[in-house]
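Re: the pair you flagged

First of the two:
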Amino acid sequence: MYELCFPGAITGETEVDCPYCGTQLTVTVEDPMGEASFQCCECAGLFEVDFGEGIVRYEV
């Protein structure tokens, strides 16, 4: 697991870079203090974003 810091999001949408291929993704933020899982549309990599902590978690 690897962690990268990124600016926190409020609600609505925010942009996150895929930790695998670097593609910039627009993701929906339902809970600005919660966590959400996403899948990259380019490389199909799975990762989690913890909006409260401002980190991205993914398998190396």
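Second of the two:
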Amino acid sequence: GKGGNQRGTSKREDVLDTVINLKRPIDYEPSHGASFEIHFEKTRGFSGEDAEPLSCQLGHDQHGQAAWLYSRLEDSTFDKVVNLINEGLSQAEIASELDINKSNVSRHVKKARLQGLIKDDKKQAKPVNSANYSKVKDGE
């Protein structure tokens, strides 16, 4: 219903405390098994960091038992941006590949630069153009 959002009328959603939207990861392949993103569309009783999207995958714990592995989607996206920038993709290409805004890519790249996670970073200080400076004579 309604462009892929909640089913039924919005009146039905009014009585719900929490509404989630499960999405398939952009880089999903069937070999990944049960892997999805949880996006909270309505939260009543929790907010902020607790309501941030999650990346979830069914995997195994240290004892070999089935377990849900999850991380904040922001962290997962950050890792993907770092990997793609290190592969040489432009920020525009990364935004298109991950289906996120260019501003988000830029924010992740800035954070990665500060953490020293970008290999062979090509962003260096521009050379000083001496034509923009006037010469100072000795004694002035």
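The longest helix spans residues 73-86.

-B.
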